[in-house]
């Protein structure tokens, strides 16, 4: 029996403000961050009956302690969803939330689900990356990977070696722009709609309220970055200033079949076109977005010239610039990360994929002339992931413009 593939749409996404490790969330549980995100997602979409949620997929890189125990299921229960709603945990390191989205989206496209919640959480202050992990010694003794592959900062230095034109000055300049764009986005009220405030508790300071991303450093200058140490290589290029930090935070997104979204009166912010994950040399994991994007474009029947908006995760500035250089895109192209990125906002590993999607959805809303955009990430242990999305506002614009917008060949004017 043949099954028609259904259209998958991104309905909504929320996130907590991101924190510094040992900062505003030092005494807040990781699971409480994702529970708060799920509750806010449901609150913002009151036309969705909770029992219509078919799955909850929540990612975490370090699945231990308050980030363990089938987090998707326990978070769903604690968020107040009915006992009939199942859930599960997922791990693809930095692309955890991205994989939660693509996994549940695949189920929607196939017809297994109508509505799903996907997201991620990482409390790196409580659970540093790799805590409790016991890697098989053969992975090093049999030279399956170089020891550098297990230290993300060293892989970034290796990427500098692969791209000698990406200098320390270029990555620092990119990092300064990330801080500036993030501040401008906050000043213009572009980030706040994505955020759910989180009540915090500190033994010393008492109660507080997290309302903005704690890692931001808008005062950053080229001079201040030039003075930072390069901890991964003597006289190297990678510093704490041109890379994302060690952060805490959670995200959650609502996905649906488009017909179901229309039936329930839910918004349609993006349509999923396709996605791709690929493996690369673990020692240069930052190169992952390049072949992942090549594969996704091939699957979609598109070229890079068809993409009008880019959200590239800023694990390291060099990784973003390698992607841009490969595709012939300028370092300061306004289509790329227009609201800033992880260098300023933070990168709580498994949660970041949905942040990228939130920001791409905003770019689509503000730029209806753009039809396609993508979210892409490098992934630890040598992978890359890319998701291509279609702008529903473009489709609406085409419908409103009508037949008069095409020439005799049918091409858009």
TrEMBL record:
Chain segments annotated as transmembrane: none
Gene3D superfamilies, A to Z: 3.40.47.10
Cellular component GO terms held in the UniProt record: cytoplasm
Span of domain Thiolase N-terminal: 8-258
GO molecular function: acetyl-CoA C-acyltransferase activity
Active site: 94 (acyl-thioester intermediate), 347 (proton acceptor), 378 (proton acceptor)
Keyword Flavoprotein belongs to the record: no
Thiolase C-terminal domain segment(s): 268-390
Coiled coil: none
Gene Ontology biological process terms, A to Z: fatty acid beta-oxidation; phenylacetate catabolic process
Keyword annotations: Acyltransferase, Transferase
Record-linked NCBIfam families: AcCoA-C-Actrans
Protein name as it appears in the record: Thiolase family protein
Organism: Nocardioides eburneiflavus
Highest classification ranks of the organism: Bacteria, Bacillati, Actinomycetota, Actinomycetes, Propionibacteriales
